[in-house]
Design brief:
Length: about 90
């Protein structure tokens, strides 16, 4: 059974294919349009904004889901980890 989604899909495989296609298109648009330059890099808010942009056409709960999942899975300070891990690049 697939997650509840705006596409009305109930098949997990079909949802995964649509999610991949749509989120890749949105990621390209985010970069090509320059919208990425307006997002706070290295912060939880930035990650949440990216997540919402990529998946808001697919799921109604994107912001709430991202926050609860990240806070539950990664209780440490995300911005510190991102800042540390991106310095090498």
């Amino acid at each position: 059974m697939a997650l509840e989604n705006k596409l009305g899909l109930t098949n997990q495989v079909a949802l995964a294919k649509h999610e991949e296609k749509i989120s890749k298109q949105k990621a390209k648009d985010l970069y090509d349009s320059g919208k990425m330059n307006k997002i706070e890099i290295g912060t939880f808010k930035g990650l949440s904004d990216i997540h919402r942009y990529l998946f808001s056409d697919i799921y109604a709960f994107t912001k709430r889901c991202a926050m609860s999942t990240w806070q539950r899975e990664f209780p440490f300070r995300t911005s510190d980890v991102l800042a540390t891990s991106t310095r090498a690049y």
